[in-house]
Amino acid sequence: MYQLIAFSKWCDSQPPAEQARALKAAGFDGVDMPCRQSSAVTHASAPAKLPEVRKIFSDHGVPIVRLVCDIFDEEDAVVERLLETLNKLDIRKIRAGGFHVPAGADIPALFDRARRRIAQVEKLLAKHGVSGGIQNHSGDCLEVNVSAALRLLQDCDPRWLGVQYDPGHLTLSGEPPRLALGLLGRFLHSVNFKSPRQSYDIDPASGRLYYVPVWVPLRSGMLNAPLVLDCLREAGYREAISVHCEYRSYFFRAEKYAGEVNRLVKEDVDYLRALMRGAPAG
Hints:
Blueprint: E1 4-7, H1 16-26, E2 30-34, H2 46-59, E3 64-68, H3 76-89, E4 93-95, H4 107-128, E5 131-135, H5 146-152, E6 161-165, H6 167-173, H7 177-184, E7 188-193, E8 195-202, E9 209-216, H8 225-235, E10 241-244, E11 248-249, E12 252-253, H9 258-277
Parallel strand pairs: 1-2, 1-10, 2-3, 3-4, 4-5, 5-6, 6-7, 7-10
Antiparallel strand pairs: 8-9, 11-12
Helix pairs in contact: 1-9, 2-3, 3-4, 7-8
């Protein structure tokens, strides 16, 4: 069975010990912790803060397995100190970040700049022995699906830069699991599980119908988790799956209702463990 680790974004503002107790109670094996400008531990503060935070999570039985970072937009000196710290703490995998496409952007020029930045960051990752992943992410992103992410990484060594496979985002931007994993090959860096649903609304100005993705518990959305698990096994993936508990709708925001989220999170963990055992998932 796969280890299940928690992308702990929804409870990142809570004290680490409180987070750790909640994640352990939900049944997680470890943590995929945010570490970026908007997080409790940032790229710059990680050398001072991360050793103690890591100890707290480990003492509660939910060690930090991966970090969610955004180092493409960071100064190299800060990136170097962060990666040196991760090497010392034996945290070997991170999400490196991605590339948003603003309205009106010159996309070929943006793509070329992204490729140059990726090459610079790859050297830093290799120097410090840390592997980075670019998450395929729906919406206005250069890495909108696996095919696009691989084009960004086509000259990279997959030991140091690969794709963080997010099949939930691919339900919105294309590529079924077997195709995506077949394309990835050695560039499969890590895996996230989350599940969207398409909600609709009416534009009051034009009167037109439009759709907006909302993120919901795994069984309630578009992600075919049993199929993805089968495809991961066929592809030989053996590492942890990060569960992204970013439940959001017009009436609910995960970050505001930690208690309710903790209940829903445990249901997601129990559901995935049942699927992995081959038992009826309810």
